[in-house]
Amino acid sequence: MTDSGIDRREFLKGAAATVALLMAAEGLGVSDAAAAEVKDNPIPGPPVKIGVIGLGQWGKEIVTELAKMPSANVTAICDTYEAYVTRASKIATSAKTFADYKQLLASPDVEAVVVATPSHQHKDVALAAIAAGKHVYCEAPLASSIDDAKAIALAGQGSKQVFAVGLQGRANPLYTHVSAFVKSGCLGDTAEARAQSNRRQSWKRMAPNADREKELNWRLSRQTSAGLVGEIGIHNLDLANWYLNALPLSVIGFGTIAGWKDGRDVPDTVQCVIEYPNNVRMVYSSTLVNSFMGDFTLFQGSASSLMLREDRGWMIKEADSNLIGWEPYARKEQCFEETGICMLADASKILAAGGDPAKDATLRPAHTSLYYALENFTRNIRENAKPAAGALEGYQAAVTAIKANDAILAGSKIAYTPDMFELK
């Protein structure tokens, strides 16, 4: 007990409850973070029988995450490259193997399909899976062209089964939790957004023969690739569409081959500026030449800034911004030269259990964003619910990214029009 007779832990509980009530009263979905975690709300029914089509590096990651889930059972895997099938078979040991995706789709042991082929090959596989009556999770971007993306999205939108898009941030409990703060106006007047995706890697893959090498290196050709902004940056751009609750008006871009001069015609270093309504702009940059600062998305407003990585988030408040009431008791860390308030998706649960978020919180989510997205997919199937990222969100993110890539390749400004984002 303190001198005033109030226990600090009880005060924290009361403060948290007050904030929750205030947020709930404004329709801010403060329970989103709890809903995103399935530990306390098991997915009903038997595990979903899933087939994975496309077993490259990302497809391997998908099989690995699915193999951890009580709600999923990988019953079939498929790739045209035998070595990839063999590798994935060591993870999904009971899965049937296929070289032809049409044979996988004909299997009665497959309820749902994850499409993880190269982006330019998504269309035929996704449309066939939808036509076969399967639930479909299609990796992002939906396609490397807007026409193909629209064809997939329209078919997904019209499907009686669940159609989800691999915009995994939409199912990330951290991002969902922070979205409630964004909706509450924690940023104040939004000024700008910035994002980057830096990694030191060539994207180039080696193979036993020239044909296989060309097939593996589809990301390095303009004919088959949506470039850095389409293949990686789409997740940052989708987060901006979501948090700004708006679609872009225009984009200007620049790109160059700065380091990997090996015959590719896709830039290894890009920048673009995307204009949103109300004079808000997002600056996106990415390079394969240098890894400094990695990946992040930053939103800045008159009251605070929000910096997000895949598994960590910080709010940095301006000195003259109003206090909500809970900030003094939150966990804090140094973020550049500022003190950042750690955004913890499980803070309310810790309080309810009698803990102290400033001391007892786990800094990182229990699983990867990919895990949460795939788990959300299995829940959608068993509960016949809307996915975290559906056909419309997937299509609008694809349009945003593909047009940004067009601007980068042209080194010019391109206008978005409202009809570009419509599914009809």
Strand proportion: 15-25%
CATH architecture heading of the largest domain: 2-Layer Sandwich
Strand order in space, largest sheet: 14-15-13-12-11-7-10-9-8-16
CATH topology of the largest domain: Dihydrodipicolinate Reductase, domain 2
Question: Which helices and strands, and how do they pair?
Answer:
Elements lengths: L7 H18 L6 H5 L11 E6 L3 H11 L4 E7 L3 H8 L6 E3 L2 H5 L6 E4 L6 H10 L3 E5 L6 H12 L5 E4 L6 H11 L6 E9 L11 H7 L10 H5 L2 H11 L5 E7 L12 E8 L3 E8 L7 E7 L2 E5 L4 E5 L14 E4 L2 E5 L4 H6 L4 H4 L8 H15 L7 H20 L2 E3 L9
Helix pairs in contact: 6-7, 7-15, 11-15
Explain this structure:
By secondary structure, this protein is an alpha/beta fold. It has 2 domains: 48-167, NAD(P)-binding Rossmann-like Domain (Rossmann fold, 3-Layer(aba) Sandwich); 171-362 and 391-415, Dihydrodipicolinate Reductase, domain 2 (2-Layer Sandwich). 35% of the residues lie in helices and 21% in strands. It has helices at 8-25, 32-36, 57-67, 82-89, 101-105, 122-131, 146-157, 173-183, 210-216, 227-231, 234-244, 347-352, 357-360, 369-383, 391-410; strands spanning 48-53, 72-78, 96-98, 112-115, 135-139, 163-166, 190-198, 250-256, 269-276, 280-287, 295-301, 304-308, 313-317, 332-335, 338-342, 413-415. Strands 14-15-13-12-11-7-10-9-8-16 form a 10-stranded mixed sheet, with helices on one face. It has a 6-stranded parallel sheet with strand order 3-2-1-4-5-6, sandwiched between helices. Helix 6 (122-131) links the parallel strand 4 (112-115) and strand 5. The longest helix is centred in the last third of the chain and has 20 residues, at 391-410. The radius of gyration is 22 Å and the shape is globular. Mean pLDDT is 87; it is low at 1-36.
